Amino acid sequence: MRLILQLFVFLFVFIPCTWLFGLGGFAGGVLLIKPEKPTMHSDAIIVLTGGKDRIETGLDLFAEELAPELFITGVHDDVTQAEILARYTGAKPLPECCMVLGYKANSTTENATETKEWMAGKNIKTIRLVTANYHMPRAVLEFRAALPGVKIITHPISQPDIAPGDKKFWHIIFEEYHKTVFRFFEILTASLR
């Protein structure tokens, strides 16, 4: 009887409470996360496409010369460099050199792989990673797994149109939390083999 009670507590109390605590911590972390060392230089700025203001922020950072190279990963096949440049509205001119678009990636894992391929042969030791605040935990997880030894400076972008009082916020947080947990265990399992 005691074993059944322990099993019941584990399945219906401990696991749900752990899950709920993790989800709350994830949501709080997403809301509080800010760009890390916003004026620190890096060897490259890496922008993950797929969300509001990511490309524009990457271009702004590049114009501020916070890195000599800009790599935008996950660009749609139909998008040209001229279309990307047209999104820049800053006052400072963009550097004439060293912006590259990556067209291979369709997921966060593929973003990390595509970036690793682009970095091959380059002496890049630090990157500034630009993506949405809710996407940053999983992006960092993927990039750390793909690029061990590379320092990652996070530059999350807050999404003012996605707030905790909005149903869309909780849908995105719920989905991202589970994707992040799943990938964490996948990467952990792979590293133990």
Structure, described:
This protein has a single domain, classed as Rossmann fold, CATH 3.40.50.620. It is built from six helices and five strands. The protein has helices at residues 2-32, 54-63, 81-85, 108-119, 136-146, 167-192, and strands at residues 44-48, 70-73, 99-102, 126-132, 151-157. A five-stranded parallel beta sheet has the order 3-2-1-4-5, with helices on both faces. β1 (44-48), α2 and β2 form a beta-alpha-beta unit. It is elongated, with a radius of gyration of 19 Å. The mean pLDDT is 90.
Short description:
The protein is of the alpha/beta class and 193 residues long. It is 49% helix and 14% strand. The longest helix has 31 residues.
Question: Mind describing the biggest β-sheet?
Answer: 5 strands, parallel
Q: Quote the CATH topology.
A: Rossmann fold
The overall pLDDT, averaged over residues, is 90
Order of helices and strands: HEHEHEHEHEH
Overall 3D form: elongated
Number of helices: 6
Amount of helix: 40-55%
CATH class reads Alpha Beta
Unreliable spans: none
Lateral strand order in the biggest sheet: 3-2-1-4-5
Taken together, the total number of domains comes to: 1
Q: Helix/strand/pairing class, anyone?
A: alpha/beta
Amino-to-carboxy terminus distance = 38 Å
Radius of gyration using CA atoms only: 19 Å
CATH arch. level architecture: 3-Layer(aba) Sandwich
Tally of strands = 5
Q: CATH superfamily, please?
A: HUPs
Portion in strands = 5-15%
